[in-house]
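Field notebook, page 297. I keep forgetting to write these up properly, so this time I am using the form the group agreed on. The chain and the ligand, NDP, are recorded exactly as supplied. Prediction of the bound pose follows.
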Amino acid sequence: MTASIIDGKAFAEKVRAGVAADVSALKAKHGVTPGLAVVIVGEDPASQVYVKNKVKQTADTGMNSFHFELPADTSEADLLARVEALNADPAVNGILVQLPLPKQIDEAKVIAAIDPAKDVDGFHVVNSGLLATGGRGLVPCTPLGCLLMLQDALGDLSGLKAVVVGRSNIVGKPMAQLLLDANCTVTIAHSRTKDLPGEVKAADIVVAAVGRPEMIKGDWIKPGATVIDVGINRIAAPEKGEGKTRLVGDVAYDEAATVAGRITPVPGGVGPMTIACLLRNTVTATCRQHRLDPKAI
Ligand SMILES: NC(=O)C1=CN([C@@H]2O[C@H](COP(=O)(O)OP(=O)(O)OC[C@H]3O[C@@H](n4cnc5c(N)ncnc54)[C@H](OP(=O)(O)O)[C@@H]3O)[C@@H](O)[C@H]2O)C=CC1
Ligand SMILES: Nc1nc(=O)c2c([nH]1)NC[C@@H]1CN(c3ccc(C(=O)N[C@@H](CCC(=O)O)C(=O)O)cc3)C=[N+]21
């Protein structure tokens, strides 16, 4: 079998077109322009590229984009003051503080300081609590993007067996929650799982969010299963020349593609959908802040 490719890049373009249409309706009918603030602390080159993409795509949909680059030695107090200022600014509807943060800053404190109504990452305990109890908060972008691709590829997910490999607060746990809400039977695997290949083999849906290059092998996958690869790992690529690198996922793609029914590539899979969902969340947050129904803008 050769898996069909789930084209996250093309899907993300569709999502962004929907966002752009909503933004133009918000402007024309309600005089509201959504605004997204992205805060980055320090100069990690990978983060810089990613933030640049976000800023450009935000502006492309017609939203206001506010971009703050703070030095690597920024104090926790200064970052908290910046977040407070953004919380108070009515032109800012969404706030994203790029993670990880330098070690002098307590990430949990910063996330807790963001107004939950503007927390477009969905990382605040109010939003994770709402997700865990069936409410309608803001949902983390990466798992939301994965769910949208799964529903687009498979339709109703009811009764399917899903394994999520990884249990981070930003990907694994909210992903498992969304799959549970979609009526999957969900297993969450992690570094202490006893028989990881066996757990993966049992699943109709595999979501890999481990952060280990090509760890999930082709012969672990159930024939015909749908594989969503969240991992973004930059590895050395001597075949491209000295000092060159390339991106790979957490799944051994070439092997897995001979067994799976459908698979997301890296790059061009989950990554672009994450950014599209961030923009979608910003529109959702804007509508709620203005007491508008997002379905009837
Ligand atoms: N495409 C996108 O938009 C995004 C991609 N990512 C990528 O997704 C990946 C995961 O990110 P994130 O969740 O933040 O990572 P974390 O490092 O926070 O979590 C990794 C998880 O994988 C588990 N794990 C580690 N090693 C193993 C192993 N050998 N076997 C089984 N489980 C293991 C860990 O288990 P334990 O809890 O026991 O330690 C942990 O739960 C990374 O590659 C990251 O770059 C992340 C965010 C967005
Ligand atoms: N507060 C916060 N929220 C995040 O959502 C967040 C974060 N911090 N820190 C870092 C991770 C990582 N992440 C990515 C999103 C998109 C791509 C993406 O678009 N990737 C392209 C490739 C980009 C390239 O070529 O380098 C792709 O997969 O096709 C990558 C990584 C969001 N994160």
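OBSERVATIONS:
- The radius of gyration is 19 Å.
- Residues 49-50, 53, 96-99, 121, 141, 232, 247, 266-268, 271-272, 274-275 surround 5,10-Methenyltetrahydrofolate (ligand 2) (CB under 6 Å).
FOLLOW-UP: compare against the apo run.
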